[in-house]
Amino acid sequence: MIVKNSRTLLLVQGLRASINGTEILKGIDLTVKSGEIHAIMGLNGSGKSTLAKVLAGHSAYEITGGSVRFEDKDLLELAPEDRARAGLFLAFQYPIEIPGVANTQFLRLAYNTIQAQRGKEELDPLEFDDFVRKKMKLLDMNPDFLDRSVNEGFSGGEKKRNEILQMALLEPKLSILDEMDSGLDIDALKTVANGVNQITNKDNATILVTHYQRLLDYVVPDFVHIMQSGSIVMTGGKELALELETRGYDWITANKRPVAGAIA
């Protein structure tokens, strides 16, 4: 959904990043505006998940060049928790388990922290219980998951639903969903995608990191970016993902410069 008079949420210019002395990101340029959905596609090792982690502030990566603006803020100067408070959300490819911490406690603490940052009223346990149960209906989640430890014993699909539940509660300005479709069967994928679509609006934006076009059948992107060897080598509309599904990644190698749209 490309919105007229939308504002720039994320501006990435010449971003370079390394880990253990090995350069992974080699000059990323990316602009994301409110109301937009961007898909970043590429093979394993192309750098797409690294980009997601760097934007979220993962401490393992060293920024060696470039800049990132998130609205009026220098994102690279912010600690990970401050990036989250500012409205950036990362849904993990492999959500971790937190034994001994009830899901409802974790979710309420996260929600109230964001509410306080925005100068809004926090919810007590009873108020939050009613609120979160309504959000869980978006994802067809059993309320019993509220009383279980965070992600402990959850299936892959249940973990992904729990990530999108966090997104629904926190209402971030920019959501980065790293391999959201990984490990999901088609029914679970449809449910999670439906949740994402209901959360998406003209005031926020979403970046989908994925290998496969199938996710994009359900969450339709405005822009598709193909990453290869740490760079965005091609950008186009949703048709580019369909072309990629038909031809695979090998055909991209012959096209060295970024182009707009799919190649016929």
UniProtKB/TrEMBL annotation:
Q: Which SMART domains match?
A: AAA
For the keyword Membrane, the answer is: yes
The molecular function terms in GO held by this entry are:
ATP binding; ATP hydrolysis activity
* Highest taxon in the source lineage: Bacteria
Xref: Pfam families: ABC_tran
Name the UniProt key words of this record, in alphabetical order: ATP-binding, Cell membrane, Membrane, Nucleotide-binding
**Listed Gene3D superfamilies:** P-loop containing nucleotide triphosphate hydrolases (3.40.50.300)
Domain ABC transporter: where?
Answer: 10-254
**Family, as annotated:** Belongs to the ABC transporter superfamily. Ycf16 family.
Q: What is this protein called?
A: Fe-S cluster assembly ATPase SufC
**Organism this protein belongs to:** Nitrosomonas supralitoralis
The organism's taxonomy opens as: Bacteria, Pseudomonadati, Pseudomonadota, Betaproteobacteria, Nitrosomonadales
